[in-house]
Amino acid sequence: MENPLTAVKDFLRSFVGGTDGDSILGIDIGSSSIKVVQLKKKRGVAVLETYGELALGPYAGMEVGRATNLPTGKLSEALIDIMREANVTARSCGISIPFGASLISIMELPATEKKQLAQMIPIEARKYIPVPITEVTLDWFIIPENENKYLSQDDEEKEKNAARPKTSVLLVAIHNETLNKYREVTQKANLSVSFYEIEIFSAIRASLGQGIEPTMIIDIGAATTKVYVVEFGIVRTSHIINKGSQDMSLAISRSMSLSVDHAERLKREQGLTESGDAKVREAILLTLEYIFSEANRVLLNYQRKYNRNVNKAVFTGGGSVLKGLVAEAKGRLSTEVILADPFSKTQAPAFLEKVLTEVGPEFSVAVGVALRKLQEIE
């Protein structure tokens, strides 16, 4: 019998057709899985050619859904496997960097010429980075004045800015160790990488529109949940919660005396649905209640500091595909709640719309990376 996934991939290729542009690849290497998204530009539209996900747990002798810390050899093996399974043909790609391997901060510097700022930033950056500057790779973005004036400021910031003109700089630092590891992984997979991007920027590109209102992104991963507040496309605050989707599976396993593999299946099949086993729901909520509580704390702290309401919360990440999550979150978070729909920024056959919407939150980062890669070849 023909593999239905293969049939879908074959249809996607026939759907694309033409030779308007080269195919490109977006890669998201998470702690529990690798996601890939291959796009091609056709008549100015980002067309989905193929996508795929592969669990990393088995490569570490663990269950599907478990967070791992694989060596480069195993990671490259997994990357090659998912590229083969998803029928990836592109060799030009971008790759996301885990938020935990990076640092993001906004620096306020005296307003001056760009050339002088470029000299000042690496020196001032030392005040914001808790490791030797030689251990990280720096990048920065000068926030345009017309955007900066829209950003929320607390009273202290307003007072300082009134005293003398300031330039806001978004500072980004990535651990060299992580960059070297990812370079080795992609080289072994025979890929040409043109950029490495911290995952939050990829998620913003794929999940948010052009609005300037403060928006919270809640990215539920396997081992951790990342919470960001984004305003005018700028990350204003961030927080890592040391609980994720694997904690839900482990709670089910402990409370019902089941194997972790069985618990993982129950979590995926039943989620928070009322029709499922009440014990499954209760076990999942043990983790979710903590995540919701921490997210609310970040939200309220932001609103108090800047006197601005957070417009909505957007859920992304593999843990966000949990059945019943949005309904539960709406009753727990002090703002509007939606699921990310990154594939809506691509074109694909209509019959795939439902499945792409369902799996979309898992692929937010990979889609965001692929969209940036497409912009490079315009």
TrEMBL record:
Top-level taxon of origin: Bacteria
The family database entries (InterPro entries) matched by this protein are listed as: ATPase_NBD (IPR043129), FtsA/MreB (IPR050696), PilM (IPR005883)
SUPFAM superfamilies in alphabetical order = Actin-like ATPase domain
Q: NCBIfam families attached here? A: pilM
- Which protein are we looking at? SHS2 domain-containing protein
